[in-house]
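Form 7-S
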Amino acid sequence: GPWARANGIDRDVFGAADAPIGIVTVGRAHEDAMRALADLDLIGHSQLALRKIGLSWPIDAEGIRDFARGKKLLLVIEEKRSFVENQVKDALYNMPADQRPGVVGKTDLAGAPLLPAVMELSPEIVGGAMTRLFRDAGLNVAEPPAPPIPVRPAGLLRRAPAFCAGCPHGTSTKLPEGSFASAGIGCHFMALDDSDKTRTFSQMGGEGCTWIGIAPFTDTPHLFANLGDGTYTHSGILAVRQAVAAKARITYKLLYNDAVAMTGGQPAEGAYTVPQIAAQLAAEGVLRLAVVADDADRLPGAAELPAGTTRHPREELDAVQRELREYAGVSAIIYDQVCATETRRRRKSGKVAEASQSVIINEAICENCGDCSKQSNCIAIEPVDTVFGRKRRINPSSCNVDLSCLKGFCPSFVTIPGPPRAPGADRSWQQREAGFAAGLDVPALAPLPWRGLFAGIGGGGVVTSGAILAMAAQLEAHQVSTLDFAGLAQKNGAVVSHVQIAAAGGLDVVRIPLGSANMMLAADLAVAASAGVLERCGSAATVIGNLDLAATASFKRDPRLVIDAGLHRRVIERTTSAKDSIYLHGVRLAERLFGNAQAMNTLYLGIACQRGLLPVHEAAILRAIELNGAAVETNLRAFKWGRILAARPELAAEILGDAEPAPPATLEGLIDHRAKSLAGYQNAAYARRYRIAVEAIVARETEVFGAPGKLSRAAAEGFYRAMAIKDEYEVARLHTAASYAPGAVFHLSPPVVARMDRLTGRRKKIGIPGSIALPLFRLLRHGRVLRGSVFDVFGYQAERRAELSFRGQYEADMRLVAERLAPGNLDAAVGLAELPDVIRGFGPVKDANREIAMASRERLLAELDQVSVLQAAE
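Output:
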């Protein structure tokens, strides 16, 4: 306190000594308070005085007493708990009553909440508190500006963080049916958002301790507790010790990832090895130990581990967990797999060899059943739209070659030699770019102060774009403020950067105030439309948006996740300036021009620059790109192409070429397309059978409703799916229709050849080299002529008989629909027509989906019949 007073750490910002109301600000909250006062036109008000505390503990008590004398009220504005407020009250306690003001902050004088004690403050929160408090004190306070309130309809995506592609936790946090787990500190915490089987969490070092208290009062006999290797070294071993002392029935899953991924990838403190950790656990009294590794070569020798420790490849994790949950005591699984992000870093730096193979999906075979995502829990498996609807692909930019996706029971997976590589750029555009750039006008500059939002997905490069612009502004001697909201953005979550540029002394708060952003670079529309982001844009804000809306982590569990970029765009446009904004397929443009999706952000900077939306010159931005030092040539070209596209927006369509394939828009086009496909699948007679069946539904819907509608389209798709059974002949035909790199390996589960897996109850998948598989495929594709005949050896399988039985049943159901269709049962009729879409996948996956469809069928038939009977009675 005396030191702060002697050195003038605290300072009076404005106001006379006899002002009746004093304001005391602390730290960052001072900027929020000043902004709120400015919005309320109260800076310099004769009845207000403001003092900024520079040293929060111990405060300058004498200075506070001097400031408080003669005042009636003192408002303390600080974030989180009342740390300074309580010191102020202590400092004023012994002052004479006629000199001592009332002190408010977290509550008012009546004890009602005033400023929140949790989370962070904002000018709007502070301004609201000031308005209420000052009006009660008799001040004439203007109405604070009303923040924008965007309307957010259902269907907007939530960009929640998720495990990185190939993350060990994608497998290690999985649980056997009927079990539950608790989470702790570390990346594995995201398992809470990944399923409903991981329920609670604890502080670092408290992993599993809550179970000790809960266990006597629940019927659940056992719990798994996830524990990261870094947390284990820090304090988690104490939790294990307590569980042993309490004789708890718990299994610790110690997730040994070889790096503390959340804080930079450094080794866990102490850098203990798996054998050392196993020895420590055994010494603590953990008598049942198992070591599981993604690569059997990583498993320590039996002699290196405590007696009785079992060793397993990760394919046996489920069986190991089922065994240990029956153990009456504390047990532990040490799951050993290197962090995927750290593996990626090591590959880039040359410390680890590049992946020797990568995975691709034959989209024609893919059913979008979701089993590959279920098995791998991998975010690199993405949806892709095709003429046959949604399928899946492996994103080469994010894939870390974990290979867990190969466990999906699907014949569409193929591995090819070499690491994952994005599609190459179209070099012809590089040859033309100099000519396009030659005639560009010199961009105008946006006025200062300038505020811009950069909204995207972690790892996409959007933060770097904001940093480049900030550096360019510094090169031009402007005042710059940046604030990055990253959190778990590195795990595919939301990231938002606030960039503000002004002349010297022109900036106040570090966060862009509500309704104040001049521009938003919306690299991800889901983040741009989210709460807390869109509200910061004013009605005049210009948006440069990316129409390539990526799926969220929910897609791993929901193959039918609605991904509607148009909906997100409309929500954003209702708040911002739609006429001045520009929306492009940024990812596809960047991949086509540069073979690099991340170049989209710099391309968008170029668009903003050319359109006069940035307050810095082109030369400064180019220099900032060079100083950044990452992919300099590509980013310089991307910035140039952004300027080109701003001047010549028509080039975007030419660069992209043909539009992404989508199902035919008209019903006639859809029927024609599917009929031609069935002719290739079997023959012309089979295609005619399809047309006759669909046209009967079209005719009936037209008769009842005056025109074909959603029932006819559902039937056109449903009959096709029921008839185009992907048997061995069709899979062979589709594989031979594709082209593969030399050395391709096909991952299949052929009947008779593949053995049953006792752990999963499925046929095992085996890798068949293309030198063997492709000749067999070319021969097998001609076997379609045998379908349905006594010579169709594959047709005798239970799976094929079930598919043929459903096809016949579906045809009968649709005849019933045509017979009983009425205005009151259209929804039931459409539901029946769509049932084949539910029965996706292959083998056991398809069988499980068929059971779901059959349960729905009984209900829909009852609804169809009930409405028909009622209408007949009427």
